[in-house]
Amino acid sequence: MVTGKEDVYNRLIYRQEMSVDMPVNINIDFPRVSCNQLSVDLLDISGTQRFNLTAEIVKTPFSQAGAFPKDRNGAFNSKQDKGLPHQLLKDPFSPLLDQKGCRVEGTLLTRKVSGLLVFAPKRKNERYLVYDLFKFDVTHKINYLNFGNKSVERFSRKGVVQPLDGKEYTSKQFSKIKYFLKVVPTTYSFIKAKKKATTFEYSAQWNYQNINIGLNGAIPGVFIQFDPYPIQIDNVFQRPPFVHFIVKLCGMVGGTFVVMSFLDGLVSYYAL
Known about the structure:
This protein has helices spanning 130-135, 242-271; strands at 7-14, 21-34, 38-44, 49-50, 57-61, 100-111, 115-121, 140-147, 167-169, 175-190, 195-210, 221-228, 231-238. The protein is mainly β. Pfam families: COPIIcoated_ERV, ERGIC_N.
């Protein structure tokens, strides 16, 4: 917890550790796509290609007639918004997975290298069916998207901690949207409490594009490209030493003395 009695010091450290796993935490709603239509793929520059992820991802159907569930925190909060129980979804051929409205939630572990997270139509025999491409709607809402330990309390001087949380996009025609994320390893060190938390923070930009399906291999989807930086930001929270208080106090007293001397001289001059 940051208090008014603590100052924040920032320092940069160069670290290039590719072997460190980087958790990617996602909770995204697709109100116009069924869970059977949607595939979650993860690719990175080290050669990793994982298609139609199921082990780390939970897909929960919801029926909203094309609308988003109401809770901004990514939780179903009423009987109408309630996601279907997971025990009903064990059968991959369950008709429940065909209803429109799908929430994708989970934590993916990836290496700390540039990668691409793709939400696109599910392939059949390693190919996209034209019918699936034309009916895929990329309308979505990002309930939350973050990297690292979710329990770490983030701090930002400008008040922007997770720039994509609550981001909505409504598609009107065949389109794709691409997010560009710059991910920075970050630590929070609390000197007084002798605690240190390690996580990741990011900045984001995005681009919408209408496409001609099939032209130059274009497919509709949501693409999240993330690029980790080799620079680590350390945020150190500590109470300033007592000597700093003395220096500031002396400066204030000295400044007050100078101003009062100036005013006294000015009054004496005009009083003559």
